[in-house]
Amino acid sequence: MHKEFIRKKEHVFLFCLFSLGSLILVAWNLFAKTNDIQFEQLAKMFLNGHLYLSNSYNAWTDASYYQGYTYWPQGFFPAIILIPFAIFKNIFHQGFIQFILNLLNLVLLYRISLLITKNKITSLWLSFAYIFSTAYLMVGMLPISWWFAQVVATSALLLAIHEFLYKKRWYLIGIFVAFTLTTRVDLAISAVFFLMAIFLSKQNLKQKIKASLQLTFPILIGFTTIFAYNFARFGSIIEFGYKYHIPYLTETRAFLKQYGAWNLFYYPSNIYYLFFKGPDGIFIKNAKYLTAPFIKSNYWGMSILFTSPIFLWCFNANLKEKLIKPALITTILLLLFILGYFGVGANQFGYRYALDFYPFLFIILCFAFQSRMSNLAKGLIVISFIFNLYMVYSLIGVL
């Protein structure tokens, strides 16, 4: 009787958490106003047969400028999914689709967790934690183009993982991976997880080769389209636009010109913001004494230990589980690539580029809670949600 009462209270509490989280997404996805609608504009330009953002030179933030036109250096797939809605010029904006994708991600996370943990309550906690108690929170909230692309990439990658866990239609997994790489090209590395899973399986060699071909064919098509897109814009299949890019942040422009978009030079900075940077103090003017509310989010980012501490439970996962090794290796490979990127991810909550490997950390996290989820973990999820929400609002100037 006592256990049943506690279980019902937990159900009510989870309902309240999800309701609050959903209201936050509704408020920001559907009603927040922003001028950073590059993908929405690009979808409209695609319909008119153009690959640039507009005829107005220097018209968009954080863009690439080439031969009098303004180009968006990120992948084109987010604009593709907006094309069917681009005709609703007066009532449509990309935040509507971001809200739908956020809900889709919640469902996918729940189903992925459920298959691994076999526990509905644990799966609800974990799916909530991913969206609201990690660095995903701000990305999910604000419907600006940089964040929108990461939400799209997360959806495509979670769809691939979901398909892998439930039905293993390799051609469909390949299509979803192609969607991710035409959104964020570094996520082509995610194919490593699925290829490793194929070759670590108990299938015979012929079956493994067949599955690998089915997986990689759509991915090759994805690469072909992104190369063609680059060539049509800049005359080179490997030029994404960063040669002609003018970053929004003036602090990064000289370094992009000197070191390029990817360089080992950026490793120390990215490592610092990913692992070590904490919140900033709020001090009395001209003094070193803290004043209420004492701390705020840092513009350049904060450590995963502050923004996404639930992932510390990954260390409790049983390494003998067959999916742990592919998930861990894929995470490391993505991390090694991301650490060399020039952008750092400034004007962000947390270290948002880590979201590229969060889906694979989530797999490991689910295995860590196969037996049960402790009250400590649940409490941390709630505290992280409150802390993250405060930090996001402190960053965007609401508090």
Assembly category? single chain
Q: Could you give the count of β-strands?
A: 4
Element string (H = helix, E = strand): HHEEHHHHHHHHHHEEHHHH
Instruction: Give the overall silhouette.
Output: globular
Q: Give the rounded overall mean pLDDT.
A: 91
The number of helical segments is 16
- Give the helix/strand class: mainly alpha
Rg calc: 21 Å
Query: What's the helical proportion of residues?
Result: 55-70%
Largest sheet: 2 strands, antiparallel
Give the count of structural domains.
1
Ends: how far apart?
44 Å
Tell me the fraction of residues in β-strands, as a range.
under 5%
Note down, in words, how this protein is organized.
The structure is a single chain. The protein is mostly helical and 399 residues long. The chain has one domain. Helix content is 58%, strand content 4%. The chain has 16 helices and four strands. A two-stranded antiparallel ribbon has the order 1-2. A two-stranded antiparallel ribbon has the order 3-4. Helix 14 packs antiparallel against helix 15. The protein starts with a helix and ends with a helix. The mean pLDDT is 91.
Protein topology:
Elements: H1 2-31, H2 38-47, E1 64-66, E2 69-71, H3 77-82, H4 94-117, H5 120-132, H6 136-141, H7 145-166, H8 170-181, H9 191-199, H10 205-234, H11 250-259, H12 267-276, E3 280-283, E4 290-296, H13 304-307, H14 324-338, H15 358-368, H16 375-395
Antiparallel strand pairs: 1-2, 3-4
Helix pairs in contact: 1-4, 1-5, 4-5, 4-7, 4-15, 5-16, 7-8, 8-10, 9-10, 9-14, 14-15
